[in-house]
Automatic annotation (TrEMBL):
The keyword Nucleotide-binding applies. The keyword Methyltransferase does not apply. The lineage of its organism: Eukaryota, Sar, Stramenopiles, Ochrophyta, Bacillariophyta. InterPro entries: ATP-dep_AA_Ligase. GO terms for molecular function: ATP binding; ligase activity. Keywords: ATP-binding, Ligase, Nucleotide-binding. This is ATP-grasp domain-containing protein.
Length: 162
């Protein structure tokens, strides 16, 4: 929410009464954390199945029923992508759930400096928080070693310095 501090105290401006974005790639994570529902299911129930909506808890469970996270992927390299072997590696992590990226063979990748230059996002989800932690560390290592992409090699980059 957005709050403005006034002379009379805090004033609530906005509570973001909209659906979460991300093309819904977060729904599996939300459903696992809460035990089977997200804002999508809750909204449908509120309009079409009020008796089901009334059964939803007032607060999310604490602790959550699973461990998960959306990880924004960054690029520490740039160039024209030939292939994306690191994405296939990600898909084999024990906590992998969803990968969303517009990068593919032929894409030009720049260094990630903000959200607009990120190379994608991945939803990780696992019952064991240690597995999730290990997979996030591995993912960050892939970023550090530029392990997501194979880039087109330019001959001028291979010449011996004179």
């Amino acid at each position: 929410g957005e709050v403005i501090m006034t002379d009379e105290g805090p004033c609530l401006v906005e509570m973001n009464c909209r659906a979460h974005g991300g093309d819904g790639n977060w729904r599996p994570l939300c459903r696992a954390l809460t035990g089977g529902y997200s804002q999508v299911e809750a909204t449908v129930d509120a309009y079409l199945y009020p008796e089901d909506f009334a059964q939803l808890p007032d607060l999310p469970p604490s602790p959550f029923y699973a461990s998960g996270q959306e990880v924004i992927l960054v690029s520490n390299s740039r160039g024209k992508v030939v292939s994306t072997p690191g994405f296939e590696v990600l898909k084999n992590l024990p906590s992998f759930c969803v990968l969303e990226s517009g990068v593919h063979a032929g894409s030009e990748v720049e260094y990630t400096v903000d959200l607009l230059t990120c190379i994608g996002s991945v939803i990780l989800l696992h019952p064991d928080p240690e597995v999730l932690k290990r997979d996030i560390e591995f993912l960050r290592t892939l970023e550090t070693i530029n392990g997501f992409f194979v880039y087109e090699t330019k001959l001028e980059n291979l010449k011996r310095p004179t």
